């Protein structure tokens, strides 16, 4: 290739690489429908106070030994060995702390997908996340999910810290 062509092409490549890989900016909070059920994600401010106990499961949509996987709701490529998860109504992306209530193991992870769409379950995790929490063999477990932050980069909003009062 000629140097002039490369000089013109380089800024275009750099600008394209700065764009959001999934085609969203900020938070994904638009309503959606799956299997005839309508879901409306909660607002960012409400999500910052999210703290729920319920059933977690793990999912693996991989094919060919986990080396090929589809896109998440945010359009990101995720492999089975990543530590991520899915939630029906939290804004995406979102960072949460998941605590396995049967063994006390905790894990901080990023939510970047929608689901689980099975009644009674509040969160789906990748196989590696399930292994780290110690329930991969069982398939489901009771967990506590607490939001740490919502959004990425300049859009990130963190959960407000509880004020602690010291009495002397």
TrEMBL record:
Top-level class of the enzyme under EC nomenclature: lyase
Domain RlpA-like protein double-psi beta-barrel: 53-145
CDD domains named among the record's database cross-references: DPBB_RlpA-like
Membrane topology type: Lipid-anchor
Domain of life: Bacteria
SUPFAM superfamilies linked: Barwin-like endoglucanases
Primary location class: membrane
Pfam families with a match to the protein in the record: DPBB_1
Enzyme Commission number(s): 4.2.2.-
Keyword Glycoprotein assigned: no
Presence of the UniProt keyword Signal in the record: yes
Signal sequence range: 1-21
UniProt-annotated location(s): Cell membrane
UniProtKB keywords: Cell membrane, Cell wall biogenesis/degradation, Lipoprotein, Lyase, Membrane, Palmitate, Signal
NCBIfam families, sorted: rlpA
Family: Belongs to the RlpA family.
Record function comment: Lytic transglycosylase with a strong preference for naked glycan strands that lack stem peptides.
Entries under PANTHER family matching the protein: ENDOLYTIC PEPTIDOGLYCAN TRANSGLYCOSYLASE RLPA (PTHR34183:SF1)
Name of protein: Probable endolytic peptidoglycan transglycosylase RlpA
Species: Rubritalea halochordaticola
Organism lineage string: Bacteria, Pseudomonadati, Verrucomicrobiota, Verrucomicrobiia, Verrucomicrobiales
């Amino acid at each position: 290739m000629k140097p002039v062509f490369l000089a013109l092409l380089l800024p275009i490549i750099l600008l394209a690489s700065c764009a959001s890989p999934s085609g969203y900016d900020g938070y994904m909070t638009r309503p959606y429908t799956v299997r005839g059920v309508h879901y409306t994600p909660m607002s960012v401010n409400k999500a910052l106070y999210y703290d729920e106990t319920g059933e977690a499961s793990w999912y693996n949509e991989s094919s060919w030994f986990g080396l090929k996987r589809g896109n998440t709701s945010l359009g990101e490529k995720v492999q089975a060995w990543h530590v991520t998860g899915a939630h029906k109504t939290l804004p995406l992306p979102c960072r949460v702390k998941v605590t396995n209530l049967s063994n006390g193991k905790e894990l901080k992870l990023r939510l970047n997908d929608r689901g689980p769409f099975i009644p009674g379950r509040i969160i789906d995790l990748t196989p590696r996340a399930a292994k780290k929490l110690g329930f991969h063999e069982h398939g489901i477990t009771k967990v506590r999910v607490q939001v740490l932050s919502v959004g990425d980069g300049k859009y990130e909003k963190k959960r407000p810290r509880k004020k602690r009062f010291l009495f002397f």
